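Duplicate of #3305? Posting structure anyway:
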């Protein structure tokens, strides 16, 4: 599960949800282990996301992951 913490400042403290690339820019969610690359599906939205290598480990762009909802529940579909 991916849930941002302390994100109110990202939206100017106006109560908006922190969604999309405009908010998250070049921020990536590192999966921490080289063996975790592949395709993941967000169980809440049904969106499929492919990992990309960042600093030697697979990662997912937060702007894409948190584009529709400010939380995601990832399920791995296949390995890279």
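Output from current build:
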């Amino acid at each position: 599960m991916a849930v941002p913490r302390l994100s109110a400042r990202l939206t100017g403290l106006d109560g908006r949800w922190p969604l999309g690339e405009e908010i998250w820019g070049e921020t990536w969610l590192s999966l921490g282990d080289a063996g975790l690359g592949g395709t993941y599906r967000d169980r809440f939205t049904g969106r499929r996301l492919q990992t990309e290598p960042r600093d030697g480990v697979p990662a997912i762009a937060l702007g894409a992951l948190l584009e529709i909802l400010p939380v995601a529940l990832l399920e791995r579909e296949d390995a890279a």
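Confirmed duplicate; merging threads. The longest strand covers residues 74-79. Helices lie at 20-24, 62-65.
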